[in-house]
Amino acid sequence: MRSTILSILILFSSGGLFAQSAVKLKENEEFTTESGLKIKLLQGGKGKALAKGDKVKVHYTGTLVDGRQFDSSRERDQPFEFVIGMKQVIAGWDEALPLLKVGDRAMLTIPPDLGYGDTPMPKIPVGSYLVFDIEVLDVFKEFAPKMFVVKDKNNVTTETGLMYNVVEAGKGVKAEKGKTVEVHYTGFLENGDIFDSSVLRGKAISFRLGSGMVIPGWDEGLSYLNEGSKALLVIPYELAYGESGRPPLIPPKAKLYFNVELVSVK
C-alpha cells in the first residue's frame, strides 16, 4: 500500500482477529456476518482457501455506497499484499478474507465500525460504509511468525517477574546498558494473536539499551542475551504497558510474549 488510502488501511486498522470460517459462499448470493459485514461472491475461484496468518495478494477498488471511488489498486496496476489477521488492514478486510479462496472475486460492504469509524480520512466521510470489489490473486500459506517453542526447564524468572527462555544462544557481544542493539521481534498476546512484528515489516529496530526507549521488560530481558541469541520473553503488564494497556492492540493488564532475535550489539 503506497497510496494515501492504502497507507491509511494499515495505519488505522482496528478490531479483532478472525479465524477461518466454515461458511460456503455461493456466487451472486449475499452473505451477512454477525458483525454486519456483507459479502457477495461475484466470481468463484478454484485456488487454495485463505486463513489467518496467510500472506495474500489482491486487487481491489474501493468506493462509497453512492459509487464515488476513493482508491483502486487496479488503476495503479499494483496489487496489494498483506498478512490476514495481523491488523495490517481495516477489520472488515481481516474478517472477510478468511471466507475467500484464490481466484475469488467478491463485493464487500463494510460498516463503519469495521472500517474507519469516526476517524476522518481523505475522500472518506466520517461514519462511512465502504464498498470494495476485491479479487484474490495469490496466497503464501502460513506466512506469519509462530511463537517460539520452548522447554519449561529452560525458563528463567527474574526478581521483577520477567521470564525469559533462550531458544538459541548467541556467541557475540553481550548486550549491556548503553549499547545500541538491533532486534527482530514478534509480539504475541496470551491468546496467540500477533499485535506487532518487525519480521512482517521486514526491518529490524535499533535503540540504545537501558535508555527507556522501549518497555522496561525489553530493557531488562535483552540485557541477559548475547549478539546472535534468540529468546522468548514473557513480560508481565507491570513491565509492559501497565494497567491501561495500549488499545486497541493491547488490552489492559496484558501479559506479553515476544520472540526476539538479537541481530547486533554495538
Characteristics of this structure?
single chain; 266 residues; Chitinase A, domain 3; 2 domains; 11% helix; elongated
Concise description?
With 266 residues, this protein is mainly β. It is built from five helices and 14 strands.
Structure description:
The protein has 266 residues and is mainly β. The protein folds into 2 domains: 137 residues, Chitinase A, domain 3 (Roll), CATH 3.10.50; 114 residues, Chitinase A, domain 3 (Roll). 11% of the residues lie in helices and 32% in strands. It has 5 helices and 14 strands. The strands form 2 sheets. Strands 1, 2, 3, 4, 5, 6 and 7 form a 7-stranded antiparallel beta sheet that branches. Strand 8 and strand 9 form a beta hairpin. The chain is elongated. The protein starts with a helix and ends with a strand. The N terminus is likely disordered.
SSE diagram, text form:
Blueprint: H1 4-11, E1 30-32, E2 38-43, E3 55-64, E4 69-72, H2 73-76, E5 80-83, H3 91-96, E6 105-110, E7 130-140, E8 156-157, E9 163-168, E10 180-188, E11 194-197, H4 198-201, E12 205-208, H5 216-222, E13 230-235, E14 256-265
Antiparallel strand pairs: 1-2, 2-6, 3-4, 3-5, 3-7, 6-7, 8-9, 9-13, 10-11, 10-12, 10-14, 13-14
